[in-house]
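Reminder: ligand-aware prediction takes two inputs, not one.
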Amino acid sequence: MVIKEIILKNYRNYESAEIAPCAEVTVFTGGNAQGKTNILEAVYLCCTGRSHRTSHDRELIKTGEDIAYVKLTVLRRDGEHEVEIALSGAGKRIIKINGSRAARSGELLGHVTGVLFAPEDLRMVKDGPALRRRFMDMELSQLRPSYYYALQRYNRALKQRGALLRQIAAGAQTADTLDMWDEELIQSGSEIMHIRAEFVKKLAERASVIHSGISGEKERLDVTYEPDTEIRQSAADTACALGEALLACRANDIKRLVTSAGPHRDDIGVFVNGMDARAFGSQGQVRTCALSLKLSEIELMREETGEAPVLMLDDVMSELDPERRRLLIDRLTGVQTLVTCTDKNDLAGANAGLMISVKNAVLTQEERL
Ligand SMILES: Nc1ncnc2c1ncn2[C@@H]1O[C@H](COP(=O)(O)OP(=O)(O)OP(=O)(O)O)[C@@H](O)[C@H]1O
Ligand SMILES: [Mg+2]
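Here is what comes back for the chain with adenosine-5'-triphosphate:
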């Protein structure tokens, strides 16, 4: 898949920008706070329907403006796809796919597929489970619309259940009113768990091969799905287990005002030579693990969709040592890549096809040396 054109209007600090990335590596360089990440964020928004930095559309709209607009034109094997998103401060979005207005937000997914690699991803193994869940969610939403919708239903039910817990604690509702939301959590939650289990299994196979290559066969990487509640053979049985868990924690949940069981507490286990890298991994080890996970994400997406996703590297080159940088660069062939960096020296060996300098939201194509 190749992005032919990116158009931004009143997006973040951009009044207007048109970018035609090349099919290989396009580099955005410039000082801090000039608008490099904003470009990747807009592309990521078209891939996942979400910004990786905020859940408030208002922040994406240029200060003082009412509407932000992003348009991406991509070429896939089956032809050209156009994705347009208009964001308004009130949170209302208008999404158009190939010129027609989408009835549901999920219709956005699958047209532009992408993998974003940002400095926080390098901390994915050491930081809390939230980053690891986001990793699953963002990848799976792009690959499986049913996952995206299940997650949407789950999160909505979780929020409603939270509100109800507060009302029950205040005596304004009875505990049995939780049944309705529990049922929704059970249905969507068990669906989420089974899709995650299948995904992590496939990811683990690829990550282990990649990791062993990166570590010169010295390290064995095992990645496992760690669901918060028991996963059973069939989705129906998993739903039963989740239902039992929710019921078991109900009294406590009313006291603590949180839902303490379910896939919003899932994790991914990362083990190097049998040792839990989340707790005991050295800084170098956890970075290599993150790199292996990200590279397998690209691989998996390529296999599932039949073509490579666009890869966005936000400032990660500077965070990697020369050896890991080279391993990453070696894998970029055949993958359209958008890179941001402040120091061009970090790109040594990346062979940029197009270099764009970003200064206060003004883009200038740099002359090739
Ligand atoms: N809604 C908005 N309206 C106007 N400007 C905004 C808005 N949101 C962010 N900005 C501006 O965008 C700039 C940050 O852009 P971005 O995050 O892309 O920087 P960057 O070039 O990636 O910098 P760094 O190298 O530090 O990562 C800041 O100057 C910020 O003030
Ligand atoms: Mg940035």
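The chain has a mean pLDDT of 94. The two ends are 28 Å apart (CA to CA). We will return to this case in the review session.
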